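chain below, 437 aa
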Amino acid sequence: MFEKVPSGWQVVSVKDLIDTHFSGPSPTCEERNIQTESEWGVFKTTAVTWSGFNEFAHKTLPQSYWGQKHLEVKAGDVLVTKAGPRHRVGVVVHVPATQPRLIVSGKMIGLRLKAEYCESDVIAGLLSQAEPQKYLDDRSTGMAESQVNFTNTALLNTTLLLPPKEERALISEIGQQLEIQIRQTEAIVAKLQQVKQGLLRDLLTRGIDASGQLRPPYEQAPELYKESPLGEIPKEWDARTLQEISSTPICYGIVQVFGYVADGVPVLAIRDLLGDYSTNIHRTAHSIDAGYTRSRVKGGDVLISVKATIGRIGVVPNHFEGNISRDIAKIRPSAGVSSNFLCFLLRSPLGQKTLELSQVGTTRAELSIAPLKELFFPIPPLKEQERIDTVISSHEALIKENESNLTKLKQQKFGLMDDLLTGKVRVNKMTKQQLSS
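prediction:
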């Protein structure tokens, strides 16, 4: 199975590394986490992902299944999915920690390692390598790709390239150090996202005065506010409908785009709104576009998805000219409204909640254009919009910087751990510090 075995490594079977293996039941459960010290739960397969273990992806078992201690997952276990869609079968995680009274389901296998192979993160990493994954995939069977499985025996007979004890310990240390950096960066991103929500709430209800300061709230300075259809808003602001701040009638786009025409007119779909407007662009015939001059777009137009993924917001970049599909509504901001500000406003929790007021239908909901036009939003003077835009853009740039750092850390960990777990790069006490720095 392995073309080359690194010096000092050995080929072993999974069954050689474990004290025991276990699979549990898959009964009908309450779709909630356990809440008391007597309840027991069962892990969903979503607890086992390539991104790591999630102890909160579980549901509460019926009482008749409680107390099965031999199936209880513990720190140091390795979990492997064995049933489901093919791309979700053979997924491996190690369990760094977990709350008690949670068991494996029948769609996964728990592995409890022998004491001498206690580096569960390393063992899980070895099981994630290409050769073991191919071995399991070749032994996964089913009537359709959406539901395949492999047997416990197949997993136990899977062979791994096992580093010696000292090297496993060093690989584990390096992986844990990298994981700490990743978790710390994830926490920073989550905190920044949380701060952003509070910032948006304050900026879009209180704004920034001429001195560049956030206005005090209404409760502290009611004289700075006035009544409006939206409640109290700063005196300098207006409550205006979407149609009132659009220089052209709000409309949706081409009902039927038909086939792709290589030299045709670009047509934006919902999937393009969060992109760079240069990929996934459909093109329709000029004759079809000619019937939809009202929905042609240009740089600065604000777009709202009105079907399927409802409420997605985008701003058309200056370089783009074309049309939109039936699933998108176009707003062309009037001279006193900033496209970026309107985009922030509509994407905010306040904006999304307001957009819901124009939603119609239940099984196939959509935003209806007629009520959409009549929705009120708080609109500051243009100069204040620009000040708000600057603050939010600066904060979003900080989020993107940390998200970029997070991506780089994950890529670095993946590349380095792959080298270490395959023996391409060997590690000892002298090289560990260099590799983990």
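Residues 143 and 149 are 10 Å apart (CA to CA). The longest strand covers residues 108-113.
thats it, cya
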